[in-house]
Amino acid sequence: MTVDFKKEWIEKGFTSDVNQFLNEKAQSIPNISKSSIRNIFNTIKKIQMKLTSTGNETPVRSNDILLLRPRFSYTLKRIEKKYSNEIKILEEVTFKALEVVENRISTPEEVKSAEFRNVFNRFCDYYEALLAYHKQFAKN
């Protein structure tokens, strides 16, 4: 049985079907390099670290979040020629979840809220799970 993306995973928390969804999607993208997916994850993780830091580090701006989509698009377009069908699957998996995060930003100050941090943390966990499943099926 195929599972569809549910925005509630990012908004409220995971349910057991998130694993099935991400496992199926990871199996569909074996030719995309682990480093490509890792690069996207590293960008997400840097923002997560800024969101959770309490020190004097540079704060996260709404632009940092809203520019994730073009950054990911650039990364994915660099490898699209070889694996266009797989890139479309990865874009779908990434951008549907990212859209939930983006929709939480109504003002630049919104990224400072605890609710936003929770949503972003779930997005980060979601992508980390995809990375882990992908590692199992990746050819390179």
Describe the protein's architecture and organization:
The protein is an all-alpha fold. Helix content is 67%, strand content 0%. The protein has seven helices and no strands. The protein has helices at 8-11, 17-27, 34-52, 62-66, 68-79, 84-102, 114-137. Helix 2 (17-27) crosses helix 7 and helix 6 (84-102) packs antiparallel against helix 7 (114-137). It is globular. The two termini are 28 Å apart.
Q: How much is the radius of gyration in Å?
A: 15 Å
Strand portion: under 5%
Helix residue percentage: 55-70%
Count of DSSP strands: 0
Termini Cα gap:
28 Å
Number of helices: 7
Order of helices and strands: HHHHHHH
Mean pLDDT: 90
Shape: globular
**Structural classification:** mainly alpha
Extract low-pLDDT stretches.
none
For the report, how would you describe the main beta sheet?
none
